[in-house]
Amino acid sequence: MPDLTLEQKAALVVGANFWSTLGIDSAGIPPVVVTDGPHGVRLQRGSGDALGIGDSVPATCFPPAAGLASSWNPALVERIGVALGDESRAEGVGVLLGPGVNIKRSPLCGRNFEYFSEDPLLSGELGAAWVRGIQSRGVGASLKHFAVNNQETNRMTVSAEVDERTLREIYLPAFERVVTGEQPWTVMCSYNRINGVAASENHWLLTEVLRDEWGFRGLVVSDWGAVEHRVPALAAGLDLEMPGPQGESAAAVVAAVRGGTLAPDVLDAAVARVRALADRAAHVGSQSQASSAHHALAREAAAESMVLLRNEGGLLPLDTAQAVGVIGEFARSPRIQGAGSSQVNPTRLDTALEAIGSIAPVEFAPGYSFDKRVDPAPLIAEAVAVARRSEVVLLFVGLPAGDESEGYDRTHLELPAAQGRLIREVVAANARTVVVLTNGGVVSLEPWHDSVPAIVEAWLLGQAGGSAVADVLFGRVGPSGRLAESIPLRLQDNPSYLNFPGEGDTVRYGEGIFVGYRYYETVDVPVRYPFGHGLTYTTFSYDSLDVSRDGRTASVTVTNTGPRAGREVVQLYVSAPTGGISVPRRELRGFEKVSLEPGEAIRVHFELESRAYSHWDVVTKGWVVAGGQYLVEIGRSAHDIAVSAPVSLSAPRSPRLTLDSRVSEFLDHPVTGPILARAAGGVEGGDSANLLEMVASMPMRRLMRFPGVGDSFKRVGVLIALANNPVVRGLASLLRRR
Ligand code: BGC
């Protein structure tokens, strides 16, 4: 790059200010404006902050990820991506900082409202749709926070101690899906360390996995303030440090290149990526946004984001002629998003109170105050009086803004105590009560759950949430959301409970791959509502599940058997055989949202990759299909399986044998297995099966050191040669199959 001096190059790989990369006019490099993200454009004109403190220009506030994920609808998420792309362009924003695809390991993570799911497939598919949408408008995404950023406590220093298989199966696949499928313009590294190494300085993560394995071609940017040592970060693959300017970082880079401790081509590669980003973003700032259309889209998305958890006696949908008691401050003062860097300044704000009031006769009582100093008793008494006078009560409760935020985690799942009291007293006064929940992270529904006939989990719904709630409660739109995370009965039931948020600067991911429903289902721990659960105003049946012999395609017929049109999320799970490795009872491997009129049936097709049947093998460092009988299951949730079909898959080619292979590997091998079994049968005194079991875990070399054994296996070298001969192995496998 002869047009740039070393100093210019070093300055280019650090931001110019809070929200912009450096531009160098003389070299034809324009600055790129980046901004949060993800559920709206948070463009700050004056001085910036990453904490949601300062003001930003008005922008459509779509439902944050916790809500949006419950739609299980990638097509909808993609449309939101397109809208975000248009709004970004209109404001001259080149990269919007999102989506966040970190796994919801614990319901306590303060930032769960910004993440999609406890499941990597759902997170990955929705994240990919978001990126596809925004990038189709010529605006870049920043896939974050790479990686294993699953808590806010000590987020800048904590080391997530995670075993390799868990990384590959749970914490990396959503990133992998988005990178390999959509090539986001940028990936944002996380604050935390992973097994001791800071994400920003993690060569394995940022270069070996991200670039070499997954083929990432974009730019790696730091989370704001994630860089501690600029030179090792650059060497690890971190192209751009944000925010800037960091004079000492640029100086350190210059010194390292001059001193020979940093190869000039490492810096050149990062500079080339900053330039490429600037070229791609050069044309933003040219299109106008359609704000009323975006508000309508935000309303549609909010309606799809709600999950109808319970509807005893068909209390919902409501009839417009009834006198409705609307109780709860949230109905009047909605909480539409979480706190922190993602906080958008909405263009409009719909309240449920107004929206419901435009449909039915309403009497309102706030029921509680967000001001903790206010005595709850008179507010509850007033609410109870309204409940008594009403034919049906819509009771809005949830987490006040301060209860969950970027920067800190929650310590419990409870609603404020005064709201718990309010629920009990209102339900006692009027049994026809619908609870509508406002919360970014999961809240406990105990102990009032059983006394409330209808419960709507409305998450945080963005600026049009108020109207959307009315749409769903009155049946103008059927509820179609499904839980993207389990709702436990008790916090203690969550598998991360004993290891969250860790001790000091270490958090051990002791539950391994058994995150969320993978744990609850495997260990049979009851939950209040399982992953994937959500009711509609109609019913669906499933039949005729066909799965191809190789398991790669599956089809099932879904029929709307109820009285109303509705949308079903058809969920495909795979249950793997348990031989040798520890596996969850089932894992989500596909999903499809379908819309059906009453009586209508549809055939839903799934295509599955071999990954759907694989686990990460730490020995070969790759994906492996364990041979055996799998089940393909179609469920209404991770707990409620409607139909299933078996698939028999054979193990991949037997491994190469060496003297260090275990006896069990010799026994499993198609060539040596039968020979050894016969030889063991000839050993005098004792049951041959028992004998083999006793020595199965021993490496062959060690077994041969036992007196007498070496003699019986004199020809083991010949056996190994035979076993590793492809022709002999092929013949033996054929014989075995017959
Ligand atoms: C957050 C990122 C955000 C960045 C810029 C950080 O504190 O973790 O998600 O994009 O600030 O605001």
In short:
The chain is α/β, with parallel strands linked by helices and 738 residues long. Helices cover 32% and strands 19% of the residues. Among the domains are: 295-485, 3-Layer(aba) Sandwich (Rossmann fold); 529-649, Immunoglobulins (Immunoglobulin-like, Sandwich), CATH 2.60.40; 663-737, no CATH class.
Description:
This protein is of the alpha/beta class and 738 residues long. Among the domains are: 295-485, 3-Layer(aba) Sandwich (Rossmann fold); 529-649, Sandwich (Immunoglobulin-like); 663-737, no CATH class. It is 32% helix and 19% strand. The chain has 24 helices and 28 strands. The strands form 8 sheets. Strands 10-16-15-14-11-13 form a 6-stranded mixed beta sheet. Helix 15 (417-429) links the parallel strand 14 (392-398) and strand 15. Helix 4 (120-135) runs parallel beside helix 6. The longest helix is centred in the middle third of the chain and has 18 residues, at 264-281. 53% of the residues are buried. The mean pLDDT is 94. Beta-D-glucopyranose binds next to loops.
Largest sheet: 6 strands, mixed
Secondary structure tally, helices: 24
Please give the alpha-carbon distance between the first and last residues: 64 Å
Report the sheet-strand fraction: 15-25%
Radius of gyration: 29 Å
CATH fold-level name of the domain at 295-485: Rossmann fold
- Order of the strands making up the biggest sheet: 10-16-15-14-11-13
Based on the coordinates given, report the CATH architecture of the domain at 295-485.
3-Layer(aba) Sandwich
Shape: globular
Residue stretches low in confidence (pLDDT < 50, at least 5 long) are none
Number of strands: 28
- Tell me which ligands are bound: beta-D-glucopyranose
